[in-house]
Amino acid sequence: MSNVIAVYPGTFDPMTLGHEDVVRRATQLFGKVIVAVAAGHHKKALFSLPERMDMAQAAVAKFPQVEVDSYSGLLRDFAVARQAKAVVRGLRAVTDFDYEFQLAGMNRTLMPDVETVFLTPSDKYQFVSSTFVREIAMLGGEVHKFVSPSVLEKLHAKVRSVQAAA
């Protein structure tokens, strides 16, 4: 197994089975994978940072070479501080590619010693996104096929609390 450290960044709001599949694939390539949960200052998250970290930790607990950490600010600063040599990005469809390609180019400029590696999830998760999962759950739809049981439980509780507050 390689001793290369990879960072898999995202807001993971919530972590989906597609994210978990990308983590699994990354563990087959890298000696250590750090799931980097972004504070998400640019997005309005449904879950708080500690909640997203807890969900991510539960989801990746089965992978001993994976750790979960959080970051705010530039991914570059986090990756360099953690001595990462790769950034893992999940690609679901062609629509992701343009944005991810631009992001990879910017990251290459900011951290020339760190490679971006694109991984695709299994076919059954190609269409799953945290945004869709949140929206379906908020509208009372069933999302058990898209998230792990521990995430599903937290998602249902969060939806109930948000709807009760409205």
Residue stretches low in confidence (pLDDT < 50, at least 5 long) are none
Strand count: 5
Number of domains: 1
The CATH C-level class name: Alpha Beta
Oligomer: single chain
Structural class: alpha/beta
Label the CATH architecture.
3-Layer(aba) Sandwich
Mean pLDDT, to the nearest integer, reads: 91
Provide the CATH topology. Answer: Rossmann fold
Report the end-to-end length measured between terminal Cα atoms: 50 Å
What is the chain-wise order of helices and strands? EHEHEHEHEHH
Biggest beta-sheet profile: 5 strands, parallel
Q: If you compute it from the alpha carbons, what radius of gyration comes out, rounded to the nearest whole angstrom?
A: 16 Å
What is the fourth-level CATH superfamily? HUPs
Taken from the alpha-carbon principal axes, the silhouette is globular
State the share of residues found in helices, binned by percent: 40-55%
- What portion of residues belong to β-strands? 15-25%
Trace the largest sheet across and list its strands: 3-2-1-4-5
Please, could you describe this protein's structure?
With 166 residues, the protein is an alpha/beta fold. It has one domain: Rossmann fold. Helices cover 44% and strands 17% of the residues. It contains 6 helices and 5 strands; from the N terminus they run βαβαβαβαβαα. It has helices at 17-27, 49-60, 75-81, 94-110, 130-138, 149-165; strands spanning 5-10, 32-38, 66-71, 86-90, 115-119. It has a 5-stranded parallel beta sheet, with helices on both faces. Helix 1 (17-27) links the parallel strand 1 (5-10) and strand 2.
